[in-house]
């Protein structure tokens, strides 16, 4: 792992700036410890895949980064903003991170275009024309420009998820968080969503993805993080992660998902 | 009197008087509903607040006024406050001295107490994921409430609200006991004048029936308007399999203007959505249609 990282870094000459820094992060749901002592550093432009069995804390981890879940211990710094729970830090961090959810969560009463225009207009104070231009640009980027005037319920799951990605991109965030973006999709729709995510990765976006798509992880990720029972069990460069897993827990997990 | 218990001539002659009574009923209903809706939303927000300073008084308000019998509440507001001399002498007597104003106060307290749970249920029905998505996009809690939660809650709560409105509209009849001359009071007056036990109240009933059904038609229209994003799906999707191409290719421009108007956040948020027409003009074809 360390060998791979240093070779990565020498290639870029200087270490890239840190995008997300999590230090000893704890999170409790009542007495249940959902995250315990999470240390994770994500540098700009990196693509991190987080995997692990269900209930291992993957989603909780990614949701603490934009404070959909407040953490109870440790520190999280996102692009220089420390998440201390103050409303301004929460607001600022959410402008740094775009998020895509498992259930798409498009606003059903707004058209596709309006879904994409709402946040830029309110938080970036764009004019209607500017917001529409931005929305159209990203909708076309996810190949869904033609459906702009439809409502979410009129699109397929894969289309809705691509809209959700475009909606997040409209805020032009430096970091994108994906929380199991393909888990609610029919198999034939997974590919179109992954394709959009891969395009995004090629453009140098900093991405943190919770996903079970190991093929995607292999193709796109720089590093893969394996979680179990609220802890990071193993973290390695993509090739090392799949070829030479060290812990038994990861070996078992890989044996189960890679038949 | 004929075999019919209804004296048609009396019914016909009483129409102007009844209409006048109905106007009072309608005015009272509309006034209380107009005051009541924003008030119920405010009390609901207090009720749902994390701060016990807000939540506890709001909860007590609901418990008290939902339990308090409306008739007795009206008696107390109209006759009870009149017993307080300081109030009789003071400037507030303009309000408490008027039967109509007392009726508005009593009915509003009762209506709001019932509405709080309607509004609360509707707000809670909005999926948490949508609220999360909105906050994740950087919208403030207030913006999320205005643009996502409230517009969706309105759609979810419309049926329950319609029930409450219909019950309420008919329930306004109790104000006749504190000398407000509404539709029921007119019917009673006519009964006392004519000793006809059926005609006046049946005529009044017909007026109430028409009023309530106008409310129903209004709600139907509102519901169609608010839920056009679902309705359109049903109407478009059915012919779609056979005519997939025309819908994808030619149609998009045509159905847009009504949809643009439907997008309900325009209605509530004129400042932000003000340039709405500009978007429709972006596809000029629509206006030609």
Can you tell me about this structure?
The complex is a heterodimer of chains A (259) and B (289). Chain A has 259 residues and is of the alpha/beta class. In chain A, 41% of the residues lie in helices and 25% in strands. Chain A contains 10 helices and 10 strands. A 6-stranded mixed sheet of chain A has the order 6-7-8-3-9-10, sandwiched between helices. A 4-stranded antiparallel sheet of chain A has the order 2-1-4-5, covered by helices on one side. In chain A, a hairpin with a 2-residue loop joins strand 9 and strand 10. In chain A, helix 4 packs parallel to helix 6. The longest helix of chain A has 16 residues, at 187-202. The two termini of chain A are 24 Å apart. Chain B is mainly α. Chain B has one domain (22-233, 245-263, 271-282): MetI-like (MetI-like fold), CATH 1.10.3720. Helices cover 78% and strands 0% of the residues of chain B. Chain B contains 17 helices and no strands. Chain B has helices at 8-48, 52-67, 70-80, 85-89, 93-96, 99-125, 128-136, 141-171, 183-194, 199-226, 228-237, 244-249, 256-262, 265-268, 270-273, 276-281, 285-288. In chain B, helix 2 (52-67) packs across helix 6. Mean pLDDT of chain B is 82; it is low at 233-289. Chains A and B meet through helix 3, strand 6, helix 4, helix 5 and helix 6 of A and helix 7, helix 8, helix 11 and helix 13 of B.
**What is the molecular shape of chain B?**
flat
**What does the largest sheet of chain A look like?**
6 strands, mixed
CATH architecture of chain B: Orthogonal Bundle
Structural class of chain A: alpha/beta
Gyration radius from CA atoms of chain A, angstroms = 18 Å
Helicity level of chain A: 40-55%
Mean pLDDT of chain A: 92
- Treating each run of at least 4 consecutive H or I residues as one helix, how many helices of chain B? 17
Number of strands of chain B: 0
Number of helical stretches of at least 4 residues of chain A: 10
Poorly predicted tracts of residues of chain A: 1-7
The fold-level CATH name of chain B is MetI-like fold
Number of strands of chain A: 10
């Amino acid at each position: 792992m360390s060998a791979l990282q240093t070779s990565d870094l020498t290639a870029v000459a200087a270490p890239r700036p840190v995008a997300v820094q999590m230090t000893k992060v704890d999170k409790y749901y009542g007495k249940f410890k959902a995250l315990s002592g999470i240390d994770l550093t994500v540098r700009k432009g990196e693509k991190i895949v987080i995997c692990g069995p269900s209930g291992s804390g993957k989603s909780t981890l990614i949701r603490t980064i934009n404070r959909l879940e407040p953490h109870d211990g440790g520190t999280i710094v996102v692009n220089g903003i420390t998440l201390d729970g103050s409303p301004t830090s929460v607001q600022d961090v959410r402008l740094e991170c775009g998020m895509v959810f498992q259930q798409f969560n498009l606003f059903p009463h707004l058209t596709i275009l309006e879904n994409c225009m709402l946040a830029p207009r309110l938080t970036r104070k764009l004019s209607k024309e500017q917001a529409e231009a931005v929305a159209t640009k990203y909708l076309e980027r996810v190949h869904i420009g033609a459906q702009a005037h439809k409502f979410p319920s009129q699109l397929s799951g894969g289309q809705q998820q691509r809209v959700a990605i475009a909606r997040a991109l409209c805020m032009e965030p430096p970091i994108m968080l994906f929380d199991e973006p393909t888990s609610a999709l029919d198999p034939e729709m997974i590919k179109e969503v992954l394709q959009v995510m891969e395009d995004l990765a090629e453009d140098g976006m900093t991405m943190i993805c919770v996903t079970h798509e190991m093929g995607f992880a292999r193709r796109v990720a720089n590093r893969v993080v394996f979680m179990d029972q609220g802890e990071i069990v193993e973290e390695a460069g993509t090739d090392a992660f799949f070829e030479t897993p060290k812990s038994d827990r990861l070996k078992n997990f890989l044996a189960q998902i890679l038949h | 009197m004929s075999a019919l218990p209804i004296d048609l001539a009396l019914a016909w002659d009483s129409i102007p008087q009844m209409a006048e009574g109905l106007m009072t009923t309608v005015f009272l209903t509309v006034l209380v509903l107009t005051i009541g809706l924003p008030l119920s939303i405010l009390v609901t927000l207090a009720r749902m607040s994390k701060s016990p300073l807000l939540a506890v008084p709001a909860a007590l308000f609901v418990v008290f006024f939902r339990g308090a019998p409306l008739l007795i509440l009206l008696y107390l507001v109209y006759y009870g406050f009149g017993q307080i001399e300081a109030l009789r002498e003071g400037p507030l007597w303009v309000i408490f001295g008027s039967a109509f104003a007392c009726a508005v106060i009593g009915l509003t307290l009762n209506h709001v107490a019932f509405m709080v749970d309607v509004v609360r249920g509707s707000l809670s029905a909005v999926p948490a994921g949508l609220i999360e998505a909105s906050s994740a996009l950087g919208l403030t809690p207030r913006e999320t409430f205005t643009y996502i939660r409230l517009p969706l809650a309105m759609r979810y709560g419309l049926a329950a609200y319609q029930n409450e409105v219909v019950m309420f509209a008919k329930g306004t009849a109790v104000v006749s006991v504190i000398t407000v001359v509404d539709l029921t009071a007119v019917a009673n007056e006519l009964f006392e004048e004519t000793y006809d036990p059926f005609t006046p109240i049946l005529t009044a009933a017909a007026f109430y029936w028409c009023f309530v059904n106008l409310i129903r038609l209004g709600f139907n229209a509102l519901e169609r308007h608010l839920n056009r994003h679902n309705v359109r799906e049903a109407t478009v999707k059915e012919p779609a399999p056979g005519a997939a191409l025309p819908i994808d290719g030619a149609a998009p421009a045509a159905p847009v203007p009504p949809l643009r108007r439907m997008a309900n956040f325009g209605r509530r948020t004129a400042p932000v959505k003000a340039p709405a027409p500009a978007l429709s003009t972006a596809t000029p074809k629509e206006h030609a249609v």
